[in-house]
């Protein structure tokens, strides 16, 4: 049986706790667990909540613009929107200006859900136990990291 030993210094790059990807992944898992009961009260999944956040900002957005905003491809987004439409949160319709485009609009129920969701960000801030300026800075840093990685990948 192999004995426990300390890795040589050059192996530090391969330690799990030194991996940025694992820190982001495990933080994402923790965040999803935090959101789960908050969103169950609204009868939303996390991806549905993200769609609602975007539509509460800009109602009447095209499906392609919505996908770009959420970093989702149409194969993922279309079934999600169909389920949300079936549950009465939104409706989709062809653009009057360009029939190739499909636009997404909140239903009255979808607009009303915003009032029920308004407390969610405060719950997340409270659970984080971080000052709001620190959370805003961290969010900006993560967005910048995402953008840098995306630019390097393309």
From TrEMBL:
Classify the source by domain of life: Bacteria
The UniProt record lists the keyword Transcription:
yes
Asked whether the UniProt record includes Ubl conjugation among its keywords, one would answer no
Taking every annotated instance into account, which residue ranges of this chain make up the domain HTH marR-type? 17-144
Q: Which UniProt keywords apply?
A: Cytoplasm, DNA-binding, Transcription, Transcription regulation
Localization terms from the record: Cytoplasm
PROSITE patterns, alphabetized: HTH_MARR_2 (PS50995)
* Transmembrane stretches, start-end: none
Q: Which SUPFAM superfamilies match?
A: Winged helix' DNA-binding domain (SSF46785)
What InterPro entries has UniProt attached to this entry?
HTH_MarR-typ, MarR/SlyA-like, Transc_reg_Sar_Rot_HTH, WH-like_DNA-bd_sf, WH_DNA-bd_sf
Protein name, entry field: MarR family transcriptional regulator
Q: Which organism is it from?
A: Rhodoferax mekongensis
